[in-house]
Specification:
The complex is a heterodimer of chains A (235) and B (288). Chain A is 63% helix and 2% strand. Chain A contains 11 helices and 2 strands. Chain A has a two-stranded antiparallel sheet. Helices cover 44% and strands 18% of the residues of chain B. Chain B has a 7-stranded mixed β-sheet with strand order 5-4-7-1-2-3-6. The longest helix of chain B has 29 residues, at 36-64. Chain B has helices at residues 10-16, 22-34, 36-64, 78-86, 92-101, 105-123, 136-146, 162-189, and strands at 198-205, 211-223, 226-230, 242-248, 254-260, 265-269, 280-286. The radius of gyration of chain B is 32 Å and the shape is elongated. Chain B is built from 8 helices and 7 strands.
């Protein structure tokens, strides 16, 4: 029997009055030798957070196909919470811990579903395929010479090292991605990543300073040292 | 007269994004012509934009190709992305992820999902209004897992002994050539098997996992996933010692299974690993 309260089980009102930590502790202790009690504890936990789980999944900007729907994601997320509760270190709220598990399951699904070319996670349309290519995309690019390719690789490595050094956390990375490279407005970036516009501007300013310092530390004093074969200008 | 700019700051980025008006844009260009530091920053931004455009074209090309799987190894896995988002301190392990996310729109979008969920969670407080019971389907996966072999503890004989595994792996690494030669020599000199059993070398080690010799056993596959190793002359010399089988199932892990030798034979059951034959196997008996 699954999820049913066995007779002689735990007192439901006691479970409802317990704090999250106490309830999780009881669940983990019961898991070893009293599956029925463990299930009862878990039901009490999920009752508190089912709305959160559901909301995180259904309010995602991505769309799930009928064959791997939001309900399926929800069920798998609940399963992962069941198995993952032993890993909760109590350093933050249980809601954050659960939200992390749910989001990870959601991203796994999005990536898996995204590999199916008959479904577009962004539009929720079957058979949409990839975005339309421009005529330029269909023109075969000339392959660079091996020497040019080696130089391109070296340039890419340098840029990767630069980014690894100047980005201190995820906010730096996404601001470089969306604001610096992608050209999105600070307000748009702030809304997408749940941060303030001020943070976007402050971080961009600091990134610029760190970037300058990195270039100086690595002996790069002219733009020609960075442009290389891509623009045909050699240092 | 163009207004003199003191290091454009964020206006530099806005200029490259086409967000500045013509007059401010000209002022930035004038500054870049005169300031090598800002020109270097501008060059980096230009390079990043060029690389990003190339990556976008490459991604589109790979998605358009029929049956071509995108390179899943190019993106950090979900666990790495989560660690990157939730870690507070600067961590060298996250540096590669930081560099990747800075130029990957897909992974950046995934981080936006973490940010959104984290915000929802921070504001959430369980209440009677939000209380919702589990559905039957929510229990399906849990029940399946608990009722399968994965949900049960391994029997003692299969419980991994990490120290022993490490000792044996080190032995193979350090003395592999010598052991191989000894095994080859033992197999060459062993009388042929009376039946169809395969002859296998069993490495003898002492309690400290030091190499002591090789003994040849006959191996029989009883059924898929179960094999018996038996001393060909029926010797009881190794009775009550453990025979350890070190398997490589190509999962990335080495699996160590053990069982006692009784009446000159030991049975090894690896059927829990999907009845797939191991790609490599080494056998050991640890005895004084």
């Amino acid at each position: 029997m699954s999820g049913t309260q066995s007779s002689g089980g735990l007192d439901q009102s006691s479970l409802d009055e317990m704090g999250d930590e106490e309830l999780v502790d009881l669940f983990l202790a019961s898991s070893k030798n009293d599956r029925s009690a463990a299930h009862q504890c878990f039901e009490a936990i999920v009752a508190r957070y089912k709305w959160l789980i559901d909301h995180v999944v259904r309010s995602s900007r991505f769309r799930f196909p009928p064959w791997d729907s939001a309900d399926d994601v929800n069920s798998r997320a609940v399963f992962k919470v069941y198995r993952g509760l032993a890993s909760w270190r109590r350093q933050g709220k249980l809601s954050s811990f659960i939200a992390r598990i749910v989001t990870s399951e959601m991203i796994d699904t999005i990536r898996r579903v995204g590999r199916d070319k008959s479904w577009d996670c962004n539009t929720g349309v079957a058979g949409a395929g990839s975005e339309r290519s421009s005529p330029m995309d269909s023109v075969a690019a000339q392959s660079p010479t091996p020497e040019a390719q080696a130089e391109i690789s070296e340039q890419r490595s340098m840029v990767a090292r630069l980014l690894a050094d100047v980005c201190q956390d995820w906010k730096d990375s996404v601001i470089i991605n969306e604001y610096v490279i992608g050209g999105r407005g600070a307000k748009e970036v702030a809304q997408k990543y749940e941060i303030s516009e001020d943070v976007v501007y402050q971080r961009a300013r600091r990134l610029r300073v760190r970037l300058l310092k990195w270039l100086a530390d690595h002996g790069i004093h002219s733009s020609a040292q960075l442009l290389g074969p891509m623009t045909g200008i050699r240092a | 007269m163009t207004e003199e700019l003191q290091h454009p700051d964020n206006e530099l980025f806005d200029h490259f994004n086409g967000a500045l008006g013509p007059e401010r844009g000209r002022a930035v260009e004038d500054h870049l012509a005169a300031c090598s530091d800002c020109a270097s920053v501008a060059a980096v931004v230009r390079r990043l934009k060029e690389q990003a455009e190339q990556s976008r074209l490459a991604d589109r090309e790979s998605r358009d190709q029929a049956r071509k799987e995108p390179d899943v190894d190019a993106h950090p896995d979900v666990g790495t992305l989560a660690s990157f988002f939730y870690r507070k301190e600067d961590d060298a392990n996250n540096q590669a992820t930081a560099a990747h996310v800075a130029v990957c729109c897909d992974c950046s979008d995934m981080l936006a999902e973490y940010a959104r969920a984290d915000r929802i969670a921070s504001l959430y407080s369980p209440s009677e209004a939000t209380c919702a019971p589990m559905g039957e389907t929510d229990w399906t996966l849990i029940d399946e897992w608990e009722n399968s072999s994965f949900g049960r503890l391994k029997p003692e004989s299969e419980a991994p002994d990490r120290k022993l595994l490490d000792k044996l792996l080190n032995l193979l690494k350090d003395r592999g050539t010598h052991i191989y030669e000894a095994a080859h020599h033992a197999l060459k000199n062993a009388p042929p098997s009376a039946g169809s059993e395969e002859l296998v070398p069993v490495i003898l080690v002492n309690r400290d996992a030091e190499f002591r010799g090789v003994e040849v056993f006959e191996k029989t596959l009883n059924r898929p996933g179960v094999e018996t190793l038996k001393h060909p002359r029926g010797s009881r010399r190794f009775d009550n010692n453990l025979l350890h089988a070190l398997f490589d199932f190509r999962t990335g892990d080495q699996i160590l299974l053990s069982n006692s030798v009784k009446l000159g034979a030991a049975r090894i059951d690896y059927s829990n690993f999907g009845n797939v034959r191991p790609s490599a196997a080494n056998y050991f008996i640890m005895a004084d």
